[in-house]
Design a protein that fits this description.
With about 425 residues, the protein is mostly helical. The protein is built from 18 helices and two strands. The longest helix is centred in the middle third of the chain and has 44 residues, at about 250-295. It is found in: Cell membrane.
Length: about 425
Amino acid sequence: MERFQGILGIFLILGIAFLFSNNRSKINYRLVLSGIILQVVIGILVFKVSPITKFFQLVGHGMGKLEAFARKGAAFVYGGIGVTQPGGTLGDYAGGGFVFAFNVTATIILVCVLVAILYHYGIMQRIVAVIARAMNFVMRVSGAEALSNVASAFVGQVEAQVMIRPYLSSMTKSELLASMSGSLACIAGGILVVYANMGFQAGMDIAPFLITASLMAAPGALVISKIVFPETEESVTMGRVKMEVKSNYTNVIDAISHGAGDGFKIAMNVIAMLIGFIALITLVDWILINIGHLFNENFDLSLDYIFGKLFTPMAWAMGVPGQDVNNVATLLGQKLTINEFVAFKNMTDHKVPIVSEKGIAIVTIAIAGFANFSSVGMQIGGIGELAPDRRADLAKLGLKALFCGTLASYLSATIAGILM
């Protein structure tokens, strides 16, 4: 029955995208079909082919090791601070225990340093270019949008656009939307590792699902964006994928320094964003509860209650088991309107518990992306700095990109749920 729900979910998601298309007669159905097939193939490889499944499980455990390595750096800085250790005793932070701000900051910084080193030696660019060529061959999309969508699985949403900076001014509006949608549907490597480790701390191995989400997001975003805004112009990068491999860093020490600095900025932004959003949510919930009590003293109205009602049809259509539908719907709402960090934290802290493995898989893939309202503003501002002449187009496409990025994540999650 849940597989049947998932099939209905695919038609629902594609139908919503078709309904909001600005030019239905120009939709490239070959591109749409090839993109969905590519997502299905990725899902089958990850979930059904034993050697590949084991490989991604090993990669997931490797992410756990990164947190341990990052702790060594954090322990030097935060050593001497008393925190609760495993077993309930109080001890030095350096000896164990988990403090969100310390652990998350350290992990993001380490991953950003590793990415900067790989970028300096041209490894990152070559990996992205190879995958982009494969996607370009299968889906017949332009080189620029293939590159930016694949790059978004490795680096941040603005950093991915840096890789196609020479083309930004000449990209068509359809390409711009596809590029923006991919960045919102994907999740940067550093943040992905953080979420994996949040899962490990809660006894949940969600790393394979996060990797699957990252791999499926690029073709999914192209499928949805090309339905919503089909290509009607001539792309200057159609049929070719070319990337500048040259490093912007003087040497590897310069790369490490910049990577650490960039990682720290991202980490501080994450911490500030969480403090602000969670405090604001608490305030709004207090107001809503009091409003609810005016009508019924037992009615605890809250954002979670509202999200649970609004997103229930989509959660059901994605194939979520019945016992988890309401809580998955709540997490979908939190991710879209607040951010994915809050949704992941509530899931891994079991404040919004998901009990079935299939429910965990579907919601993990569905919320593993940057598609929320605050990210749209950051993206418009960031890409606008790279291509000032496209600011007006970026502003017009911002909400469309949010819409496409969200549906792309839902499409990946639905396909994954059918295959489980």
